[in-house]
Amino acid sequence: MADLLLYHAAPSRSSALLWMLEELGQPYDVHLLNLDKKENRQPDYFAVNPMGKVPALKHKGAVITEAAAICTYLADEFPQAGLNVPIGDPRRGPYLKWLFFAPSCIEPAVLDRIRKTETGSQRQLGWGDFDSVIGTMQKGLTAGPYILGDKFTAADVVMGSAVRFGMVFKVLPELPEFKAYGERVGSRPAAKRAQAKDAEFIKQKAATA
Fold this sequence. Notes:
The structure is a single chain. Helix 1 packs antiparallel against helix 6 (about 155-170), helix 3 runs antiparallel to helix 6 (about 155-170) and helix 6 crosses helix 7 (about 175-185). Helices cover about 50% and strands about 10% of the residues. Strands 2-1-3-4 form a four-stranded mixed β-sheet, covered by helices on one side. It is an alpha+beta fold. The longest helix has 24 residues, at about 90-115. It folds into two domains: about 5-80, Glutaredoxin (3-Layer(aba) Sandwich), CATH 3.40.30.10; about 90-190, Glutathione S-transferase Yfyf (Class Pi), Chain A, domain 2, CATH 1.20.1050.
């Protein structure tokens, strides 16, 4: 049994962690959960994550939840993979910003736009407004080829997952910066391996439906 255990549902937000683990190159196990059967709402999984969400990661007795937090943890825990920016490097600030920009700004802005909800004034919202989020993303992705320039990091796994999801499901505007970045990170061997594994997991799910 590997030290790393990912609680995963395919497809879901935890697909980003499957990609992250493939980038690490460390042995890991996957515990699949069928969300349609509410396996994530059972007592045994609530003991892992009281929120009943995926992903969750077990490593050496510790349980980490929230995708960006898990990616940050793994990048720092396995620095030999070159996916982190160490403390003391001036790029660590922007690196952390982008790691948490996706869940704290992109996701709520997109969901708000999809649901067309009344969310109050820009001052009341932690993420501001949809157009500001899109403009910030567009500007950030011009540095290229990755979010910090030439260095691919865990921030690209998180941001890349958000951009690729947004482009596939047409919830982000089809800007050339988004399209080029999504294709670039999606062409990485680790991303392709994760996508292939998810396809197999989806087949397994369908076979047991």
